[in-house]
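Hello,

Our lab assistant flagged a job as stuck in the queue for most of the afternoon. It eventually completed. Since we weren't sure the result was trustworthy after the delay, we are filing this so someone can double-check. Below is the sequence as submitted and the structure that was eventually returned. Let us know if re-running is recommended.
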Amino acid sequence: MVALGFIEAYGRVCAIEAADAALKAADVHLISIKKVSGGLVTVILEGKLAAIHSAVEAAKIRAKMLCRIVNTNIIPGPADETLATIEEIRRIRKKGSRKRKNK
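-- returned structure --
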């Protein structure tokens, strides 16, 4: 079953550290690291449900050593509309990375 994992942290460095720990802990894919507001940064992961559970837990443990995790969430078997939103984020991210490469 496909699942989505969300990690919300204070600061980009904390979010990157959490994402790195998650990616090293389980077979998951990084969808995005996005600044929200007020210093909050959200990490979105995708993978199988068990892998997402492991990845989010590893991220919480690692990030708590350095900074503050505000919230985590796992969506098992997301709705089609939710997956469509994730695909849109992925598309925008790819488009942005192509622009940076061309500069």
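-- support follow-up --
The delay was a queue issue, not a problem with the job. The result is valid. The CA atoms of residues 88 and 100 lie 19 Å apart. The beta strands are 2-10, 28-35, 40-48, 69-76.
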